[in-house]
Design goal:
Length: 111
């Protein structure tokens, strides 16, 4: 049985993959400021249900192609999208952005 990985080796490989996933999440989240600025320029809401639907459909399709549970992958991406929206809302509040739907100032204005 030479050549089989030990449990420790497999766990180390998984840890390495986990670190790569975290790095990719950080990169995705870092785009929040660019995304917010583009939304401000184009007058688009922070929360974009149409875009959310497109992303979730796309990732479900990609997961299915790879034999991964699409429902679970969709849940992960729902979390990632929400994280990005929350970051955009935080940035909008820091920038004092007004009039952007879903931003803190827009929510306060509506109250």
């Amino acid at each position: 049985m030479k050549g089989l990985k030990t449990l420790k080796q497999i766990r180390e490989e998984i840890e390495s993959i986990d670190n790569q996933i975290i790095e990719l999440i950080a990169k995705r989240t870092a785009l929040a400021e660019e995304l917010l600025r583009a939304k401000l320029r184009e007058g688009t809401s922070i929360v974009d249900e149409e875009q959310r639907k497109k992303v979730l459909e796309r990732v479900a399709r990609e997961a299915s192609k790879r034999g991964i549970d699409a429902a679970s992958v969709t849940k992960v991406f729902e979390i990632l999208i929400t994280m990005n929206e929350n970051k955009q809302k935080e940035l909008a509040a820091m920038l004092g952005a007004t009039g952007i739907e879903g931003g803190e100032n827009e929510q306060q204005r509506r109250q």
